[in-house]
Amino acid sequence: MPICCIRALGLAATLLFATSAAYPSAPEIAAAPEFVDPLPASRGFDPVVPFEPRARVELGRVWWTAPRAESVKQVAERFGIAHDDLRALDPSLADGRVAAGQRVLVYRHDPAAPSRSVGAPNRGRLEHAAPFPEGDGWALRAYRPRTWATRHVVVELAASIAEWRERFPEAQPVLLGEFSRRGGGTVRPHRSHRSGRDVDVGYVLLVPPAAHKFTVGTPRTMDAAATWGLVQRLLASGAVESIFMAESVQNQLLPHALASVAPERLPSVFSVLATDPRAKKQAILRAWGGHDDHMHVRFACTDDDVGCRDAERRKKGKKKKGRSAAKRRGAKGR
Ligand SMILES: [Zn+2]
């Protein structure tokens, strides 16, 4: 979706880029940093692909511009923010109504409240989350209760897409889907997306989609060079733990990856090239649970996260118990 259309939806946010690199100016990107604090260091995953990261994003405030007159309660529901929390964030909302075109503050960074992921992606929760802001290069749904993540994830993803966009200015904007809820927890029908580290990112398409809906990545639909460029930048950030991606899509990206990844490292990046099941599970791009119309990006734990770990397996005892109970029920039924 071109930036003009995003503007037409009346969605805006303040994303602060502190970088010497020349970013195309967009009205959503302001220059004055309100908070400048160092991001928590990633635990140092080895970037396997070169893409000199240069962008540094300071996420101070996120604004949203109401496309139509709404009650404050409706705005709060749109973002999954408690009504009182939203009014506390933006005191101008005291009269309970938001006018069309009014800017509403939906996030303000508080250095005293650390944004962090707690527990596993399929069991955990999220504290002091940040919403993903508007910007050139990506498109969000209008309804956003599930567009929250840790501030670290928001900043790393925004920097990655912004820098990718600079390299691929003609590419279609990236469709962003599910992140997490503001406080984490269940995001149906997903098993994960609970702890602010998971983001669904659409493949870069050759033509803009008619609606905000993911499209299966095929040679007819997907801009494979631009999609690899985005994956390359995400991996180069060192902040990504793994990306779930169908092997059919991996095969389309491979010819583009050959130019930037050493041949001996390719199997550790692409599960489709790994020869044994264990290596397939350890590759960064993994075929798991479909993912032919979007990639599921899992960000790595940082030192600020609490009890952060990979997905928890169901307890064996519990599973057995359930099975035997089902067997008993079956026996009774007979
Ligand atoms: Zn997902």
Concise account of the structure shown:
With 334 residues, the protein is an alpha+beta fold.
How is the topology of this model organized?
Elements: H1 3-8, E1 15-17, E2 29-30, E3 57-58, E4 61-65, E5 70-71, H2 72-79, H3 83-89, E6 97-98, E7 103-108, E8 116-118, E9 125-127, E10 130-131, E11 138-139, E12 148-149, H4 151-167, E13 174-175, E14 198-202, H5 224-236, E15 240-244, H6 247-257, H7 266-269, H8 277-282, E16 285-286, E17 294-299, H9 316-333
The chain binds zinc ion (ZN).
Q: Categorize the overall geometry.
A: globular
Number of helices: 9
CATH second-level architecture: 2-Layer Sandwich
State the share of residues found in helices, binned by percent: 25-40%
User: How many strands?
Assistant: 17
Q: How confident is the prediction overall: mean pLDDT?
A: 79
Query: What's the arrangement of strands in the largest beta sheet?
Result: 14-17-15-16
Question: For the record, what CATH class applies?
Answer: Alpha Beta
CATH fold group:
Muramoyl-pentapeptide Carboxypeptidase, domain 2
Query: What portion of residues belong to β-strands?
Result: 15-25%
Sheet bearing the most strands, described? Answer: 4 strands, mixed
Q: First CA to last CA: what distance?
A: 57 Å
Description:
This protein has a single domain (3-313), classed as 2-Layer Sandwich (Muramoyl-pentapeptide Carboxypeptidase, domain 2), CATH 3.30.1380. It is an alpha+beta fold and 334 residues long. It has helices at 3-8, 72-79, 83-89, 151-167, 224-236, 247-257, 266-269, 277-282, 316-333, and strands at 15-17, 29-30, 57-58, 61-65, 70-71, 97-98, 103-108, 116-118, 125-127, 130-131, 138-139, 148-149, 174-175, 198-202, 240-244, 285-286, 294-299. Residues 1-50 and 317-334 have low confidence and may be disordered. The longest helix has 18 residues, at 316-333. It is 27% helix and 16% strand. It is built from nine helices and 17 strands. The strands form seven sheets. Strands 14-17-15-16 form a four-stranded mixed beta sheet. A three-stranded mixed beta sheet has the order 2-1-3. Strands 4-7 form a two-stranded antiparallel ribbon. It is globular. Helix 4 crosses helix 5 and helix 5 packs across helix 6 (247-257). Residues 178, 190, 193, 198, 200, 296 line the site of zinc ion (ZN).
